[in-house]
Amino acid sequence: MPASPPASTERPVIAVLCERATDRPPGLDGLPADFRYCAADGLREAVRGARALMLWDFFSTAVRDVWADADALEWIHVTAAGVDTLLFDELRDSAVVVTNAHGVFDRPIAEYVLGAVIANAKDSLRSFELQRDRRWQHRETRSVLGAKALVVGTGAIGRETARLLRAAGLEVRGAGRVARGDDPDFGEIVASSNLPAEVGWADHLVIAAPLTAATRGLVDAAVLAAMRPGAHLVNVARGPIVDETALLAAVRDGRIAATLDVFDNEPLPPEHPLWDAPNVTVTAHMSGDVIGWRDTLGDQFATNVRRWLAGEPLLNIVDKKLGYIPTGDR
């Protein structure tokens, strides 16, 4: 989608929402624009007259609260792959273009998933416990060669995950909106709406889908009950895609294991039972955050700013109705 270039005599105003007003995203120095940096409590003033908005605080929901003040806004950029915390009806129905950080997190998240799969197969949690207790206990573990992984979400992150898992010797299928065969990355894609009938095939169920109305609560008690005994769930997408109450029951019963990077409420409260649940690995929503990721995000936005200023099409435009970039059926 082309963007209208600012008039040559003006420097457009770009508001930048940060977690703290003193934060400064890298890569923006030298761009011919006037940046207004703010935290959520200053967004209402910062967005007035601004033609673009960068969400450096990418989980913030503050845009909805100041929407009436966004009187000149043309473009919002979210420095994350998921845009679920940003979208609301008035924004979806507007002409404002939304872009995201498509491509930045694909490989890091795929590496995280591969690491989780290997750690599960090699019983790493138990090894850590034994080391802590100074106990020498010889055990046999499983190979990932020939194991089966079902990746829910066939967008860029899911595809990179599928490629890496295949390279490690796993058999992989995808689950998306539309079932089809002969996919170059997944081989076969099954319908995510039919997950209870599909998950029994997999040793590892990987959740890599965007959070939308169709995926919220997708992995419910029926899906978890249909997983094969001893299977492993990895969630690198959004917490609300998985029913946490049903998941907690499944891991407490010893039916499945889980590696969780995302949760319904973040940070995960210290009293939450998932911290101590058996066969559960908890990480702090960090699967895509490798060293240098902030620099990459800043450079990506700066590239789009230059395109915007030149009147060129913006990169990574999100379909606001779908809630993601439609590069394939998710």
TrEMBL record:
It comes from the Bacteria. Keywords: NAD, Oxidoreductase. Gene3D superfamilies: NAD(P)-binding Rossmann-like Domain. It holds the Pfam family 2-Hacid_dh. Residues 41-318 form the D-isomer specific 2-hydroxyacid dehydrogenase catalytic domain. InterPro entries: D-isomer_2_OHA_DH_cat_dom, D-isomer_DH_NAD-bd, NAD(P)-bd_dom_sf. One of its GO terms (molecular function) is NAD binding. Residues 115-287 form the D-isomer specific 2-hydroxyacid dehydrogenase NAD-binding domain. Belongs to the D-isomer specific 2-hydroxyacid dehydrogenase family. PANTHER family: 2-HACID_DH_C DOMAIN-CONTAINING PROTEIN (PTHR43333), D-ISOMER SPECIFIC 2-HYDROXYACID DEHYDROGENASE NAD-BINDING DOMAIN-CONTAINING PROTEIN (PTHR43333:SF1). This is D-2-hydroxyacid dehydrogenase.
